[in-house]
Structures are given as structure tokens and as C-alpha cells.
Amino acid sequence: MATIPKPEDDSPVPDYGAMWRLDGKVFIVMGAAQGIGRQTAHALSQAGAKVVCVGRRADATEAVAAEVGGIALVGDATLRADVERMAREVTDRCGQLNGLVDILGMPKVKPLAEFTDADWDWQFDVGLRHAFLATQLLAPLIGKAGGGPLVFVGSTSGTVISANRAPYAAVKAALAQFVKAAAFEYGRMNVRVNAVAPGLVSTPRVRENVSAEKLASAAALYPLGKIGTPPQIASVILFLASELSAHVNGQTLLAEGGMAGRAAIYDLSR
């Protein structure tokens, strides 16, 4: 009988297949009504989590909550009073909070010269205020439950130049730095803070505002020849929400098909 060799490294091997599971966990998804948020709610639910869907539109939020067997909470995550109420309701109804995914944020697209003070304030509120409130008010609940992830959605606009998006670019760059700083502060609670930064994603909002021809032209600029889809981004969020990323903290993970590494100047040589 052949002798089975003993490996040099005989340290325990974890069940990697089980590490993505979220059974018994309670997650909030802010911005769950459509697109990346809806797909994220499904991803977390399929991994075993109880999902609390948060949105400002009652019908759409309740519809997604029904799809995933979760809970719908209607409110504005840029308002402190609403986030405080969310914290109370989740605690009362679920008894714990184990993680948060914050999808919120959208650009106001126009030249910087045309921005008003109100436009500027709106862009920073819709891009950053909810991240601040969610971290300050909900991270301690996650820590109290033993720790877990906060996952935000950034953008490649925070690292590369996009036309007519200067304030949005500033917001997303600030979010990446906020993630780093918050990870440092809340790590002692065993709370991990990360973000995923997509490029162009074929969400319902994008398809409503960008023609099919322009989307096809954009896809040609990507090394993979296609723009992202909400399930592809939700898959990365699931990774950051699970124990598969247990030692990932303070990071903004690019999920943009390689587009951000492309330098258009090299096309001149073709």
C-alpha cells in the first residue's frame, strides 16, 4: 500500500464554501429598491441573511423586501432622525444588526461652472451624509452584535476623470478616504468598513438616461468589451459582506472591468 505523504503545512483548513454564508445574520441594505441595491438584497438573502430593505419610495422598497422575505423600512438616510428610527426599528424587530450595505448616491451631471450652492450641497448630502450617519449610528450596533461589515458603493469617478462630474468625483474620492478613516476607528469593535467602486453599470436609472447607442460605445472602451451589470457588483458586495473578506478593511475595491487602467492617449498609436 502506498504511503500517503504528510504535507509540510498541516495547519487546519477552513470550510471555504461555508465562509460566504450569512445564516442568522441581519443586514440593512440602504437603497434596495432597484439596480445594485435590489440585486444586493437578493445576494445577501440567498446567502442566508435576513435583509432589511431601506428606501424612500414605499412601494418599490416593499416590493423588494417581499421578494427576499425581508423587512421594508421607508425613510431618508440623509436625515439623522430617520437613521435613528431605523436603528430602533431594526433593534426592536430583529434584536441585532450584523452588517450594512449602503448603495446610495447619484451624480448631478453638468459643467462645474453651472453648479449652484444648492447643487453642491445636494451632491455632498446624497453622496456622503448618509455614509456618515450610517457609520456613526449603526456601526456601534454591529459591534455590539460581535462585529461585521459596512460596505459602501463608491465609483471610479473618485479616481479617474469623468466629464461634467467634478463635485461627484470629489464626493467619491472623499468616500474612499472616509472608508479608510472609519475602518481605523471602528476596527476595535470588529467592524470592517470597505467600499466597491464600479465603473458604468447597466442599472435601470442608467438605461433611462443613456441611449443604447451610447452604452454600446462605452462598452467598446472596456477591455472586456462590456459594461457592468448590477449582479456583478452585488457579487463583489457579497464578498465584502462575508467572512471570505474577513481581513479586508479600509479598502475601496475596483469592480469596473479594467476600464480605469485604460489610457486613451495610447489609442493614438493605432
Molecular structure report:
With 270 residues, the chain is an alpha/beta fold. The chain has a single domain (22-197, 231-257), classed as NAD(P)-binding Rossmann-like Domain (Rossmann fold, 3-Layer(aba) Sandwich), CATH 3.40.50.720. It contains eight helices and seven strands, in the order E-H-E-H-E-H-E-H-E-H-E-H-H-H-E. The protein has helices spanning 35-46, 58-68, 80-94, 117-144, 166-186, 204-209, 212-219, 230-241, and strands at residues 26-30, 50-55, 71-74, 99-102, 148-153, 191-198, 252-255. It has a seven-stranded parallel sheet with strand order 3-2-1-4-5-6-7, with helices on both faces. Helix 3 packs parallel to helix 4. The longest helix is centred in the middle third of the chain and has 28 residues, at 117-144. The chain starts with 25 loop residues before the first strand and ends in a 15-residue tail after the last strand.
Task: Give a quick rundown of the structure.
The protein is an alpha/beta fold. It has helices at residues 35-46, 58-68, 80-94, 117-144, 166-186, 204-209, 212-219, 230-241, and strands spanning 26-30, 50-55, 71-74, 99-102, 148-153, 191-198, 252-255. It has one domain (22-197, 231-257): NAD(P)-binding Rossmann-like Domain (Rossmann fold, 3-Layer(aba) Sandwich).
